[in-house]
Write a structure and sequence with these properties.
Chain lengths: 204, 244
């Protein structure tokens, strides 16, 4: 029998304990129930997107500047990402700029990338910030494990703040601020998560 | 006639107060207060010191004139100065009265030495002389001690005792000052050490917090929309585009 402490470390907590994570469709914003295989509103399903999106199985990199809008300023963003990844060894953060296909939201593309890109180590702990400079969209999508620790309201506020930088084409500045503020948000979330875990173990 | 009478009465008054010849002995004891042997020994001692060191201690064991203390002191001061130009002391004591002995000093040493110290010494000796078992003051002790003290002071002049005493006082002051400085230094050191320890603890804690890796607890995964890694969300923003 495993010792209680070790058992508690390997313990998986129910996501309902945490405030973060909004279960809504990345395509139509419809609020989803528990584990639906298809969006009841727009019939969205991951496999349904595959025929529409080219360039399958793109490996995820820290900086994926396909539109070349940050160019020489990518070091600032990389530094902010590496700092957060150093403090949170579970996490993997991606900054991506891409031009979304017509009639597709950036959130849908980022969601698809997270699930389809290979190799997908720690994919469920990955967060991707996708900026589309053509359609003027920005989105941040996270994996299943990370989503419960990202407060949706704070994330929306952060996107609005960064959107102001993106609107004046300060891409690197906006992305750097986003990851720095995300770091602070995660620190607080981590602190709260440990408390919740402690209480949960006590109550068991 | 009136002027003559006034002059005569003034002269008589002067005579009664201070115009008095230097006594042939250092001890004037008409009432035989001292034992003969004691008197002889003390007289011999005082005479010897007068011859060798010029220190004159007169012991007047006579009835006191009915005058205020200050006037009696002036009277004896005038007497002493008229009797000798060297260092002198007059011890006046009336054995028939309960008043303590009156001690008046004079001579060059008062200008050369610390008068305050000498007055304190006299006061101490007077107090000691009154602490005898008999009801009378111990005049023999008093005279000998005053004489010895005058001898000490006359020799102290050569030995720079006064300077040494001043140096000693200065040393004491310096010592007190040093002690105070040391206490201030120690208190400052203690406060500084406490602050340093607190600051170090703060820094260590900060460093520890900076170095600490943060790991989130695992949660039960509930997949949706057929996606293996991410369920996605509608966190999407359309931003306006302005020229830079």
């Amino acid at each position: 029998m495993a010792p209680p402490r070790k058992h508690s470390k390997a313990l998986s907590l129910p996501p309902s304990l945490f405030k973060g994570g909004a279960r809504d469709c990345p395509s139509c914003n419809h609020h989803l129930g528990i584990s639906p295989s298809i969006c009841p509103n727009c019939q969205c399903h991951l496999e349904g997107l595959d025929p529409f999106i080219q360039n399958n199985h793109t490996p995820l990199q820290t900086i994926m500047d396909t539109t070349e809008i940050v160019k020489n300023d990518d070091q600032l963003i990389r530094k902010a990402i590496e700092f957060t990844e150093l403090k949170f060894p579970q996490l993997r953060l991606i900054f991506c700029t891409a031009t979304c296909p017509k009639d597709f939201k950036a959130s849908t593309i980022a969601w698809w990338m997270l699930n389809r890109s290979t190799p997908s180590t720690n994919a469920s702990w990955t967060g991707i910030l996708l900026v589309d400079p053509v359609s003027h969209q920005v989105t941040f999508q996270v994996g299943y494990d990370l989503e419960v620790f990202v407060n949706r309201q704070k994330l929306d506020a952060l996107l609005i703040e960064c959107g102001q930088w993106f609107s004046i084409r300060e891409w690197a500045q906006g992305a750097t601020i986003f990851f720095e503020e995300l770091h602070k948000m995660l620190r607080k979330a981590h602190k709260e998560a440990l408390k919740i875990k402690k209480n949960f173990i006590k109550q068991r | 006639m009136r002027k003559t009478l006034l002059t005569l009465s003034f002269l008589l008054c002067i005579h009664s107060l201070g115009a008095r010849e230097r006594p042939s002995h250092f001890i004037s004891d008409p009432s035989n207060f001292f034992l003969r042997e004691t008197k002889r020994s003390l007289e011999s001692s005082l005479a010897n010191q007068s011859d060798r060191l010029g220190i004159n201690v007169f012991v007047l064991l006579e009835p006191q004139q009915d005058l205020p203390l200050e006037e009696r002191e002036i009277h004896f001061k005038n007497l002493g100065n008229s009797w000798t130009d060297k260092n002198w002391t007059i011890i006046s004591y009336d054995p028939d009265q309960i008043a303590p002995p009156l001690i008046v000093t004079g001579g060059p040493f008062r200008q050369e030495h610390d008068a305050e110290f000498w007055d304190a010494e006299i006061e101490l000796l007077r107090e000691l002389s009154l602490q005898s078992w008999s009801k009378k003051a111990d005049i023999d002790f008093l005279a000998r001690q005053i004489s010895e003290s005058l001898v000490f002071l006359s020799r102290a002049k050569d030995a720079h005792v006064t300077t040494l005493a001043k140096n000693y006082k200065q040393q004491q002051r310096d010592k007190t000052q040093a002690l105070l400085s040391r206490h201030i230094f120690l208190a400052t050191l203690a406060i500084a050490s406490t602050l340093i320890v607190a600051f170090s603890a703060f820094l260590i804690r900060k460093m520890y917090l900076n170095q600490r890796k943060m790991r989130f607890p695992r949660t039960i995964r509930e997949t949706r929309l057929g996606a293996p890694h991410s369920g996605g969300s509608s966190a999407n923003l359309f931003f306006e585009s302005h020229p830079k």
